[in-house]
Amino acid sequence: MGEVEARDRLALVPGADCNLIGGRLVSGNASFEVVDPATGRAFALCPDASAADLDAAVAAARGAFPAWAALGYDGRRELIFALADRISAAAEELAPLLTHEHGKPIEQARMELAVSGHHMKQLASLDLPDEVLRDSDRGKVELRYHPLGVVGAIAPWNFPVALAMHKVAQALYTGNTLVLKPSPYTPLTTLAVGRLAADLLPPGVLNVVAGGNDLGAWMTAHPDIDKISFTGSVATGKKVLASAAATLKRVTLELGGNDATLVLDDADLDAAAAGIARSGFFNCGQICMAIKRVYVAESVRDALLEKLVAKVGALKVGPGSTPGMDMGPIQNAVQFEKVKAYLADALARPGAQVLTGGQVPEGEGYFIQPTIIAGLDEEVPLVREEQFGPVLPVLTFASVDAAIARANDSRFGLGASVWSRDEARAREVAGRLMAGTVWINRHGLNESDVPFGGMKESGYGREHGVLGIRSYQELQVISRPAA
Q: Which residues form the Aldehyde dehydrogenase domain (predicted)?
């Protein structure tokens, strides 16, 4: 079958076949293919927004802004809660589509949709009062917080609904209106969520437009978008920041990580093995804050690895539509090839030891066995870079000071963790790790009421919590003489 004939057999997915612009569902004049990573073949078409569609979405958001900002926190919260409830209620219906386009196990797809609603409510429940900085004989100084205007949100493919809805909740709750762009790898479920919002939110408050890299570039350069919230790779984040500089847009960048975990000699090894297996391999390792490097004290190396290999070796891998799977495929062909290259390079290194996995199964789809590799040094790309896949290097250390230095020797600084039964010792080590979040005796917990972001090249600003959500507002000082 030729490419044209194959494309002719694809169709727009009912319920995910339109962009949302100004409260209207717009099909557009162009489309692009969406691939099922479990097969490696396109299974559907997605509407492809044009530059004119983006202009219309931005204009609709600008027009809706004054009334939405004037609605106040309570009024906006009520509508955000209603949208959250619709998303959670639609989890069973939308989960198969999310699994189809992303590859994640169906149970995890249901969880992502349900959790999206929960986090939206958590974010829209934060107390965001104006503040009095001073009230004395020197005068009264108040800090007031205003919405920025129109926010452009660019969401990633690893948790396409959850991470998009985090941005929706933060932007809308603070009084902004929004233009949301899902990843072209996983646009369909987000478009379906846009349909849920179409008759609920005032027209123009939330606009959802799907498209490729050109659409993202148009957004970051658009003169009538006031802020960009971007989650994705470091390389793309740098392009976003450079493009936004021309109009001095406010920018929040939640970028990649190469999170290190340190297992000290007094750690609870059962807890550490379970936590590392969960964080390192959940969502096929495609999480910015997943554990991507393990440093373990020499004295407990063998005992930890025995437990860790047992956990990882027991993971069930297969198409996400098959019930009971723990892990699906890598989400897209580009990432699949990157992870395969990291794996092949690591396997070719002298001294490399594959403790479990190490194979790329034959057949269709972007599957890689969950893999643990020991015997590598610090300069191997699998250790040095962000693999974003189910291949985890384990290294040993004799000195805690040396382990901290090695963990910090990275251009990344998103997250890290420490495993120890001694809380004071763990806290001391945690304080020396250069990462935006350091967990003790766990890794990867991300709560909407807690600020999240990275140091160094892992981020620019914060999302979530009061500190993060304030980045969706403009600070104004009101100063007057004493009464």
A: 30-477
